[in-house]
Amino acid sequence: MFPGSKHEWLGAELRKQIEPLDAHTPLSTERELAVRYQVSRATVRTALRGLEAAGIVYRVQGAGTFVSDSTVSKTLTLTSFSEDMRRRASRPDSRVVVAGEVPAGSVIGGELRLSVDDPVVRLVRLRLADDEPMCLETSYLPAVLVPGLLGEDLSSSLYEKLDTLGIRPVRAEQVVTAVTTEDTEAGLLVVPPGAPALRVQRIGLDHRDQPVERTTSLYRADRYDLKFGVRREPLI
Questions:
Q1: Cα dihedral sign for 215, 218, 222, 228?
Q2: What count of Cα atoms within 13 Å lies in the side-chain half-sphere of residue 213?
Q3: Which residue from 162, 104, 145, 154 is spatially nearest to 124, judged by alpha carbons?
Q4: Could you give the angle at the alpha carbon of 188 between the alpha carbons of 153 and 180, nearest 5°?
Q5: What is the 8-class DSSP label of residue 235?
Q6: Do both 182 and 93 map to the same domain?
Q7: For residue 111, how many C-alpha atoms fall within 13 Å in the half-sphere facing its CB?
Q8: Do 179 and 105 touch, CB atoms closer than 8 A?
């Protein structure tokens, strides 16, 4: 006789089994769990959905269910990765993957209000917290606004460097999309290929409402979530 529902009981049992496991450890299959705990596969699926909603596990289509790592909540305040990590008593760092100057092209040029041939600094960095990969970040900045940037240490906060140049964004337009990681991205982020991720595409604007950066951040969904408040407008 199970106390409460079977799936609640099973969820509690699985939590106990998961607690000592390392992040990204694969769990047994639904069939194996059903046999081990003598419940139906429907009960197993319901229990796993509950654990996934709680951020304890994550699932990859065709690969199975894996143990999540602790999650960092990202608010909609315009903060840098380094600021987010410091507020959580973690040590931020970056590993530069690509750094160079390229023509803006039609897409980036349009978003930054540049001509297609105008040079932009392209910076791809793997963002780390306490030496663990958390985010893959690709930034484009108008080269005319960041003279000498490529000669500096780019492993520290980019926003702090923009501050010294007087061009740090004061607001941003962002689009958040749920995606899955491709092979190269997964390798850099140390997650299985096809693992869930959050892609945040941002255009940062200065106090004159001019775009000064275009950044795409690919966050590990097992370590990040987005937290924001909503308010109901009064009825007319």
A1: positive
A2: 26
A3: 154
A4: 125
A5: P
A6: yes
A7: 20
A8: no
Q: Provide the number of structural domains found in the chain.
A: 2
Residue 232 lies in a domain: no
Q: Return the pLDDT at 1.
A: 45
Range of the domain at 19: 6-67
Residue type, 6: K
End-to-end CA distance of the chain: 53
- The backbone torsions φ and ψ at residue 69, rounded to the nearest 5 degrees and listed phi first, read -95, 175
pTM metric for this prediction: 0.63
Residues 211 and 98 occupy one common structural domain: yes
Cβ 172 vs Cβ 204: under 8 Å: yes
Q: For residue range 99-108, what is the model confidence (pLDDT) as tens digits?
A: 999 999 999 9
Beta bridge partners of 218: 136, 199
Q: Which helix (H) or strand (E) holds 162?
A: helix 158-165
- Same domain? 107 vs 18: no
Burial 158-187 (b: 16+ CB within 10 A, else e): bbebbeeeebbbeebeeeeeeebbeeebbe
186-236 pLDDT tens trace: 999 999 999 999 898 999 988 788 899 999 999 988 777 666 555 655 565
Cα torsion 69, 74, 80, 82: sign = negative
